[in-house]
Amino acid sequence: DAGVIQSPRHEVTEMGQEVTLRCKPISGHDYLFWYRQTMMRGLELLIYFNNNVPIDDSGMPEDRFSAKMPNASFSTLKIQPSEPRDSAVYFCASSSAQGVTESNQPQHFGDGTRLSIL
Amino acid sequence: AQSVTQPDIHITVSEGASLELRCNYSYGATPYLFWYVQSPGQGLQLLLKYFSGDTLVQGIKGFEAEFKRSQSSFNLRKPSVHWSDAAEYFCAVVPIYSSASKIIFGSGTRLSIRP
Predict the structure, then answer these.
(1) Total H helices, total E strands in chain A
(2) Contact A23, A83 (CB under 8 A)
(3) Strand B10-14 vs strand B56-58: parallel, antiparallel, or unpaired?
(4) Is A57 touching B (CB cutoff 8 A)?
(5) Is residue B38 over pLDDT 60?
(6) CA distances (Å), origin B43, targets A35, A93, B67
(7) Do the Cβ atoms of B46 and A107 come within 8 Å?
């Protein structure tokens, strides 16, 4: 089975530019999560979707960050304008809700996008 | 405040030696507990999880973890490590019956293997 697919794997761009990160979740999964990982702050949840609807975006750092999920098989995380402090590895993860609660379902992670803002 | 603590930032063990990675949590009730592994350049992969029942949980790659309520711990163990086990290990918790967005990851323990 194909796992969570993220693109690009690496992105280097100059500050002020728009950056778009892409994610294809595992087919059949109805939860999608975006994380950011840095040495200083570890793994942070930015936003998550359920059935393509954003449920909790309280982790999104600023208005410069936005995320969309136009359909069950695709999501984007956009940064506009980008800043050097946005440099990090961004992970997408998906999971399925089985049973009473989704919180006990493990998340399946993509390999991440390593973003460098110069 | 709810928290997850992995007290060891970096551990080095010899190949073939036993391993124990520590994880402690602070919650009002027993949460759902997970261990993930992250190899360089890759995402996190689930090793094992605990929800209820038998407090000794078996996972993939020969790992196991033991839940100890009295100590609020969920330590990860492996009887004999292999060089391929070198990676970063994350403990994670989710409060029971809460939203998935409440997942909290520990700061991670980096495991190095001595030949």
Answers:
(1) 0, 11
(2) no
(3) unpaired
(4) no
(5) yes
(6) 11, 9, 25
(7) yes
CB contact under 8 A, A109 and B44: yes
- Least CB–CB distance from B41: residue in A4, A101, A111: A111
How far lies A53's CA from each of A33, A47, A48, A75, A90, in Å?
11, 11, 8, 11, 20
Instruction: Give B107's contacts (C-beta < 8 A, 6+ positions apart).
Output: A42, B5, B6, B9
DSSP letter at A40 equals: T
Q: What distances in angstroms separate CA B54 from CA A44, B50, B67, B68, B82, one per listed residue? A: 30, 9, 9, 11, 27
Q: Are the C-beta atoms of A21 and A46 separated by less than 8 Å?
A: no
User: What pLDDT is recorded for position A99?
Assistant: 46
CA distance A116 to A12: 5
Q: Return the number of other C-beta atoms located less than 10 Å from residue A65's C-beta.
A: 20
Handedness of CA A11, A29, B60, B102 (dihedral sign): positive
Residue A100 — very low, low, confident or very high, per pLDDT cuts 50/70/90? Answer: very low
**Reduced to 3 states, what is the DSSP secondary structure of residue B84?**
helix
Chain B residues near any Cβ of chain A (below 8 Å): 32, 34, 36, 41-46, 49, 51, 90, 94-103, 105, 107-108
